[in-house]
Design brief:
It contains 26 helices and seven strands. By secondary structure, it is α/β, with parallel strands linked by helices. The protein has four domains: about 170 residues, P-loop containing nucleotide triphosphate hydrolases (Rossmann fold, 3-Layer(aba) Sandwich); about 55 residues, no CATH class; about 100 residues, no CATH class; about 55 residues, Arc Repressor Mutant, subunit A. The strands form two sheets. Strands 2-3-4-1-5 form a five-stranded parallel beta sheet, sandwiched between helices. A two-stranded antiparallel ribbon has the order 6-7. It is elongated.
Amino acid sequence: MPDTLLLTKLLPPPSREHLVKRSRLLEKLDLESERKLTLVSAPAGYGKTSLLASWVASSERETAWLTLDPTDNIAGRYARYLAAALGRVRPELETDAIDALLNAFSEGPPLVLVLDDYHHVDAPEAHALTLLLLERSPPQLHLIISTRVDPPLPLAKLRVQGELSEIRSAELRFNAEELSSFLEGMDLTLGRGDRTELLTRTEGWVAGLQLAALSLQGREQVGSFIERFTGTDRYVLDYLTEEVLMRQPQEIQDFLALSSILERLSGDLCQAVTGQAETQARLEELEKRNLFVIPLDDERRWYRYHPFFQDLLRQRLANARPDLLPVLHRRASDWYEKHGSPGEAFQHALEAGDYRAAAKLVSKQQQAESIHRLLRSSLHLGETEEPLEVLLQQVLERGLAPGETSRLIQAVMLPEGMREVDYGWLEPLSERELEIVRLLAAGLPNKAIARQLDISLNTVKTHTKNLYSKLEVGSRTQAIAKAQELGLI
């Protein structure tokens, strides 16, 4: 006797209260529904299902919906559910034959078939059936696939043919307007600065914003909470652990943990640090799996982790294998020094606790004396003959984190080849503004920058406003992008 089909899998989830209407994405779904396939592909928590359920509820198109789960890999089960989903639109067709259903729809009005949570499907015969839908479906049928992992379908071919529409994490991130609407629906009132900081920290990740809203309920010190809100927040930690990390094979979990010490990831660098082979292929696989890996260029040479995911990975590595941390950072430092990046080499040497190596790297820079004065000032020392490595150790022993010390020093230490900057028609930045834009790029909030440079918060804000004006930008993100374009960072 065949399995009983669950009718709930054939119904889109109801719209939730306080759901943000994402007009720009709904419009894109409308405009591009004439193509064969719309792929909505992003990591967990980016609002894929909510977006599609909202679109179905507002659309006048006939829509068939199927939510997939791991049981749909059983032979024949996926085909039966597909037939049931299509059959709900035309209940007069009493058949489980996909070909017969497709033929029937070829004579009717346009039809949309939504396959939600497609990442649960990994059986080759199931993918073959989906490919059959794409290749043999009538022009009236538009397929929408929502997934955490890019499916093994001819996406490149469809893209070239103009038959593929894509909505990925970059578009699914909340923008400032959507965040304001979301907070209003949650009865949370945040100032403009706090909203900007929250959006910057989460990078628009919808689940992260929802979890932050849970933690913000009833809090009085909103600003201080947002400054401390990271991937190690208990709600974020539980979500990413349960929904993302623990669903991965052990070899991927190991690679993620070992490579999490790196701010940027490349195949060669990851191989040097992790000791694993074929790391470039691994990074490309992680990108396809949407494992919170963000490409930094179009050549797939450099990547980074979403900061919240990186926080989780680093905490797990520190708890499970603290003995590995100095080893991994030492390897990273050696790689960066070999490849002509003294700033990054210095940071990893500090993280490894190798003060001698860190001091040696600084001593090679033209700004060595300036850095020496900076460390003496931070320690409230006058003239001293203490060697640089001793000063570095003393700074760290007084509670300043290695990463913060490194960012402070790198704000002074310019890499070779970046001393002459062509600003074009823009007004050049002052030395203080250069320090601040580099610390902004390092991820420090304004209060931390004020502490690092021993200036007031208002002074930081004034310098930031001035550098925004000089660079002709309106936000931290735009300032960082412009500074990178000019070669300032």
